[in-house]
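Here we describe the complex-level prediction in full. Unlike the single-chain runs in Section 2.1, the three entities below were treated as one system.
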Amino acid sequence: MCAVQLEIRNISKTYETGLFSKKRKSILKDISFRVEKGQTFGIVGESGTGKTTLGKIIAAIEKPTSGEIFFRGNPLKRKKEEFTTFRRKIQMMFQDPEGSLNPKKTIQRSLVEVLDLIKIPREKRTAVIQDILRTVGLSEEILVRYPNQISGGQNQRVTLARILLLKPELIILDEPTSALDTSVKAQILNLLKQLQQERNLTYVYISHDRDVIRFMCHDIGTIINGRLSSMSSSTVEGISQRV
Amino acid sequence: MTLLEIKNLKVTFESSLGKVKAVEDISFKLMAGETLALVGETGSGKSTIAHSIMNILPPNAAVKGKILFRNQDLLQMSEKELSQIRGKEISLIMQNPALALNPVFSIGHQMTEPLVIHESLKKSKAILQAQDLLKRLHFKGPGVAIKSYPFEMSGGMKQRILIGISVILNPKVIIADEPTKGLDSRLKTMVLEELKLVKEMEHSSMLFISHDLHPAREISDQIAVLYAGEILESGLTVDFFKEPLHPYSKGLLESLPEKGFKPIPGTPPSMIHPPEGCKFHPRCPYKKEICTRKMPDKVTIKGRDVKCVLYN
Amino acid sequence: MKSRTFWNRSGLILVAFFVFVAIFADLIAPHSPWERFEPYTKPSTKHWLGTNDIGNDILSELIHGSRASLIVGVGASAIATLLGLFIGLISGYFKGFADELLMGVTDIFLMIPRIPLLIILAAFLKSSFWIIMLALGLLWWTSTARVVRSRTLQVREMDFVTSSKCLGFKNRHIILSDILPNIFPVALPKFMLTVATAMISEASLSFLGLGDPSMKSWGLMINFAFIKGGLINEMWWWYLPPGICIVLFVFSIVLLGFSFEEEKKVAIK
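The structure predicted for the assembly as a whole is:
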């Protein structure tokens, strides 16, 4: 049984801009790395270096210009049947707490629609919702609220709840705590770590915050000029000088 | 000399879900040349205090208490009198630089506007002053910057320009509302440097509002910790970080990265139905029976003010 | 400056009033608008607004006229808005080829001069009421499409849409469940304003004599008032009331449209 959960091989992404003179902008160049199951791989770099784009490519929300992604040893193909099975296994969380949920839907609706998606029968729904709220540390009174009526930390917990309902194996986390207060950050980071242990989750954590990276990650890659330089856990401490 | 004094400030908002008790009996003083950090989580009432001072609260707010600036109550002033003070004597640096700058006006226009309006300066003179300020804010080409537009500037530059606009009239009090929120570490350091610089230039006082303890520690002389609309602890910054007194303060420091991100259990209380007694008691590891009934009175210990039963 | 709620409520009350009158026209009007009395009479206790050139009671005509105006206005706007929503959503969500094609079509429609086209259509086709409604609907969707597309382009970039895609929701679900509710605040006022323009267009056509003579409409009333000597003889009770009704109704629709502008749910933070 392969312990490597995720493997990225030679991923590149170029954008074409401009109306008349098509300029090519190379965001990511030949990126390769591996993540083992149950570990967290950190991706660091300054704002605008393409970290989010890389995250989206791994989460199969964007297509790379070239390169391949292997999940559990199998190449990620975009053919319909295979895609649906692994689609749920790879999920992504974003930075803006309020933007991740539809502002027009109550929390209850946002959760129930996921239950619809995974076809949970009606009788079991109340129990499933109670259970997932408990897992992420929320009380039931939050169900009637709208995203802009609850705090950033609570928003992120709801988003996490939605993701966890799908029983994912790999979660790409794109700076999920950078917009949160320090004390709430601590809560969410600890929650993420706890869930990782309980469910053997693999994380790819994107951030520019060196303290968070140090706390969460086993291995780290830095993106400079579109290229990735990898570091093992032993040099994690040395990262404070680099970033 | 006391420049700004808040006395028993109480602010409530009417909302569709009930009355929001945003600020509950806040009192503090800001001395000339001093920086006071107002620290607290989102929703603790920090921005509400800043907006009360500038009197830019939304219409559904009800305010009680006194805000004395140079011994005049700002809450009793007319709009005309207030417009003389806003920007000129007391200035607010807003949270989001990208949104606070008007995209259709040049930087020069936006920086000189306060000078032209408040000090009736001639445009040419105002531009020179603006350029000078930009130079002091470490802009390499102030002449070019004056003619540029916000979309041509990076996030860091916009932040510096915003700071510039807020202080160009040399206000006596600068209120900085979460100036480092969402910025990466490089920008954070830069913004703090700029703020320190700006404060020294005119010997202004600063009210530094933030949820982040690190910049608060770096820039302030005095610190006040806000929780659910009440100041739980206040005193000298140096002493506070050496030895926090209130259990909430202790919890805040423990949740810092260098202490291992140890979280405070539970969540901040609802501002519509806050808990009885001490607002922090549901999450307090030292909770006693009396904490559920009565909010403790303010006590002064080792030069610090604390509202906790442990020190009564 | 009266508060916002005052204007919102006024709009609602006025529109409700007109709708009520249109529905219960038969009960409210003192006479049938087709019944003939003595023509050209001045306002009196028997005929509050007098009678027209063929002896119809003007007040009854006025009350019944609301039906035609409302039906054409709302009907045309409904067609236009639905069409605009559909095209705007598809265009904005899928982008690429579909977008280019649909926007090209929109451009073509925008180039067509509307009123002249309607005049030509009315001249060649039976000037039926329904044809007018359909024609207006098929011509007025363009600006709604543009506005919907623009908002769709914005909304689709938001994190919650990306989230939905990531969770595995199908496109149809995302468009209807995630994007559409966020388009409403933009589409609803547009619908209201299109009702207003459709009404005025119908009134203009009727005034030009191209309306459906079998339905009493305000525009038609003004038309007859002008050509049958009402203006020359200063019979203000004939040509003014329908005009005032048009203005008032359009005004109330616009007020109602403005009142649908989004009010953010109060953030309890």
